[in-house]
Amino acid sequence: MTASRPLPPGTWVVGKWTRRRWRVQGVLGTGANGVVYAVERDDGLKGAMKVCETAGQVAFEWSLLNLVRGPGSPLPAPQQIDDSDRPGARYFYVMERISGKPLDKVWPALAPAVRKEIMLRVVDGIARLHATGHAFCDVKPQNVLVQAASGEVRFVDPGGVTPFGKAVRQFTPTTDGAFFGLCDRRASAAYDVMAVALMAVSLDAPTPANLYQLPPEKRREWLWRAVADQVDGAWRGVWSRVLRLEIRDAEALRAALSQVRVKAEKADARPRDWTAAFMWASVASAVLTTACAWALYLRLL
């Protein structure tokens, strides 16, 4: 299904049971188990429509969104679940369309203190999900959206969320501990916590093109070098402890991150503007010149 031609903008999807109509505005993303479209309901409500291959996939993700819904939920709020007769959108649900930019897009411009706050919010969101007995399993910068004005952090693409103890179904190699031979590929709090650490490393250390061809031991060698050479020293100790499995749950990670001492911002690092000083110096010079000229003129009279 994910390889089929996506629904073009302007397509109307009509719910078989609710009879609500959703107009497709474009593709937001394509994952292993479905396509997500930006949509608008016939009454103007904006949403994100997830189209899956089976009714079971839709039902699982829908139940998960309801499980963690409410104020402070890291995942999108559910809006509607239904079937349709539209080819390419037979089984679907609609969720809140989350605004913001992916973490990797905003990270370079963030001050150290803001980076710390964002990471703490990521861990808080993971902790809330873990409280339901589920792991996110596909923690990566592209799935973490940051709202510029408020700094709020939300997660998108819940398709990889998996109950604790089950095999991970959807993951990204560079944030997958098993890819580096550091843990099992099984949903757990420790799996997600390690993914957060690997995500943090990836934000500071670009992944080499040949990493995927290397055996796990060589991947680990690159990872430890990246932590030692490219990760900010303030964070290095925390991420090293996670990768050594000394920190295995979100609460412990939050406590460790809270102790990180980041560099304080300078009060005003901008270069000084000499325009005003130059202007007043010019005025003073003109006044002095004029006074001297008058003195010389009066002496000659």
From TrEMBL:
It comes from the Bacteria. It holds the Pfam family Pkinase. Residues 22-301 form the Protein kinase domain. The chain crosses the membrane at residues 277-298. Keywords: Membrane, Transmembrane, Transmembrane helix. SUPFAM superfamilies: Protein kinase-like (PK-like). This is Phosphotransferase.
